[in-house]
């Protein structure tokens, strides 16, 4: 993407005279998106400084496949915070509450970050702060620096943002194309994270604009609707996604296994970095997969801890003899797997996913239909967008049942529905078509390329 042709349309020396600080929220789905974004914009020649605690920067780097040499990393010493193992979810709460201490600790970046801003303010023409909305408190002091400005980088879908705010403020105007059911948020957020978010949003007023990791082909309607909300009045917007970049140096063993499978024959299963399943649910899922007789690649991990470098992770308990029985049909991976490469592999025909926004964007861009199994946060919204609005996926289980155990027969049925039914075929061809369009949106003249150009031109003004 970002080829030299369109880089030329910016004032390169003007980009070199500014500095961009990228401030991610310390959870994998967010770290990852902001690091990819950093790589993308630094390819235009703008100096990018990625800011965080050492442990979180190391986490982001260790799980990233791209070349990050051109990024300046500001690794602040990690303060002490509790990093307990994930809490095994119960029937009412699936949110990863064990991460709250690391979220709270992120607020302490406020002072060192302010110092960093002051260090640079006299040296450069302009300071540009691009931050996760959940780091608004940390970056707040940019507003007292005359040559600084900020932009929020949204790691969540515009669809979710729009409907959740619009609903929360009493549905101020009518909207066409509403989802049939507004997803229930019950159990999706803890009380502490709700407070944390509300607190951060108080510091959002001074921003100049918003950047969405989304493509107008997917979410143009909702990006436009967001601009109608009063809180976004006069804020600039750019939808520059997908920000993904393919290509990696080392090949994970799972890719070699995929090489040996037939085209579109394998179901990929992963619930991201913030979901922990009960042993009982793991058993049901294992049996459902086995009974479906479909090929599968299952990444089975607990949620990250606040500090991912603390070892002692729980051993996932598969049924007796499972790996032997499913040999040749499926593999279970317990280390970190290169999801984008997996989704881009020709053998993959479907993705069973918790519908984190990162996973949704990756799957849509790679043209893989989703078997949606939302767990917490705004994932139910993502799932609604995927299944109901874009029709590139189906739900494992109806929203109303999201807190209940999903039994193996339901899983077996849904896996077959996605992998080997007429409906599944149609989903796959719609997903492939969308994937091609989204990927092409980054080509010269494509809708996302134009948005990115517009953003870069704005920075180089
Ligand atoms: C599995 O769950 C479905 C949906 O809740 C239910 O209809 C079905 O009876 C259950 N099957 C078994 C074997 O428990
Ligand atoms: C809101 C949204 O569209 N995306 C959510 C999807 O799920 C991830 C969890 O991985 C959330 O972080 C996003 O907020």
From TrEMBL:
<feature type="domain" description="Glycosyltransferase N-terminal">
    <location>
        <begin position="16"/>
        <end position="243"/>
    </location>
</feature>
<dbReference type="InterPro" id="IPR058980">
    <property type="entry name" value="Glyco_transf_N"/>
</dbReference>
<dbReference type="InterPro" id="IPR002213">
    <property type="entry name" value="UDP_glucos_trans"/>
</dbReference>
<keyword id="KW-0328">Glycosyltransferase</keyword>
<comment type="similarity">
    <text>Belongs to the UDP-glycosyltransferase family.</text>
</comment>
<protein>
    <recommendedName>
        <fullName>Glycosyltransferase</fullName>
        <ecNumber>2.4.1.-</ecNumber>
    </recommendedName>
</protein>
<dbReference type="Pfam" id="PF00201">
    <property type="entry name" value="UDPGT"/>
</dbReference>
<dbReference type="GO" id="GO:0016138">
    <property type="term" value="P:glycoside biosynthetic process"/>
</dbReference>
<dbReference type="InterPro" id="IPR035595">
    <property type="entry name" value="UDP_glycos_trans_CS"/>
</dbReference>
<dbReference type="GO" id="GO:0050404">
    <property type="term" value="F:zeatin O-beta-D-xylosyltransferase activity"/>
</dbReference>
<dbReference type="GO" id="GO:0009690">
    <property type="term" value="P:cytokinin metabolic process"/>
</dbReference>
<dbReference type="Pfam" id="PF26168">
    <property type="entry name" value="Glyco_transf_N"/>
</dbReference>
<keyword id="KW-0808">Transferase</keyword>
């Amino acid at each position: 993407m970002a080829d030299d042709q369109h880089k030329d349309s910016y004032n390169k020396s003007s980009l070199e005279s500014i500095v961009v600080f990228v401030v991610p929220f310390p959870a994998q789905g967010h770290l990852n998106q902001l690091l990819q974004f950093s790589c993308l914009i630094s390819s235009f020649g703008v100096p990018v400084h990625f800011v965080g605690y050492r442990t979180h920067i190391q986490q982001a780097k260790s799980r990233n496949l791209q070349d990050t040499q051109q990024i300046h990393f500001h690794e602040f010493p990690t303060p002490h915070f509790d990093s307990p193992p994930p809490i095994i979810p119960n029937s009412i709460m699936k949110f990863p509450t064990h991460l709250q201490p690391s979220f709270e600790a992120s607020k302490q970046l406020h002072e060192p970050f302010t110092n960093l801003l002051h260090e640079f303010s006299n040296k450069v023409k302009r300071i540009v702060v691009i931050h996760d909305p959940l780091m608004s408190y940390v970056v707040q002091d940019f507003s007292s620096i005359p040559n600084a400005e900020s932009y929020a980088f949204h790691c969540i879908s515009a669809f979710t943002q729009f409907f959740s705010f619009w609903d929360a403020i009493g549905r101020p105007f009518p909207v066409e194309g509403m989802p049939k059911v507004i997803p229930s948020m019950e159990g999706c957020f803890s009380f502490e994270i709700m407070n944390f978010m509300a607190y951060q949003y108080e510091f959002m007023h001074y921003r100049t604009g918003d950047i969405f990791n989304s493509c107008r082909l997917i979410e143009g309607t909702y990006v436009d609707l967001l601009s109608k909300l009063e809180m976004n009045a006069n804020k600039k917007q750019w939808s520059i996604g997908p920000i993904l970049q393919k290509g990696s140096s080392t090949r994970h063993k799972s890719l070699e296994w995929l090489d040996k499978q037939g085209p579109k024959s394998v179901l990929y299963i992963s619930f991201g970095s913030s979901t922990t399943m009960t042993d009982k649910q793991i058993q049901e899922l294992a049996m459902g997969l086995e009974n479906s007789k479909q090929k599968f690649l299952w990444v089975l991990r607990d949620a990250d801890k606040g500090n991912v470098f603390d070892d002692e992770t729980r051993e996932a308990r598969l049924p007796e003899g499972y790996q032997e029985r499913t040999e040749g049909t499926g593999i279970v991976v317990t280390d970190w797997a290169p999801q984008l490469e997996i989704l881009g592999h020709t053998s993959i025909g479907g993705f069973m996913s918790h519908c984190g926004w990162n996973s949704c964007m990756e799957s849509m861009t790679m043209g893989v239909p989703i078997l949606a199994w939302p767990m917490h946060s705004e994932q139910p919204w993502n799932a609604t967008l995927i299944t109901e609005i874009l029709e590139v996926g189906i739900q494992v289980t109806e929203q109303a049942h999201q807190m209940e155990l999903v039994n193996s027969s339901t899983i077996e049925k849904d896996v077959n529905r996605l992998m080997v039914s007429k409906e599944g075929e149609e989903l796959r061809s719609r997903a492939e078509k969308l994937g091609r369009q989204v990927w092409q949106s980054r080509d010269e003249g494509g809708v996302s390329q134009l948005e990115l150009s517009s953003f870069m031109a704005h920075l180089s003004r």
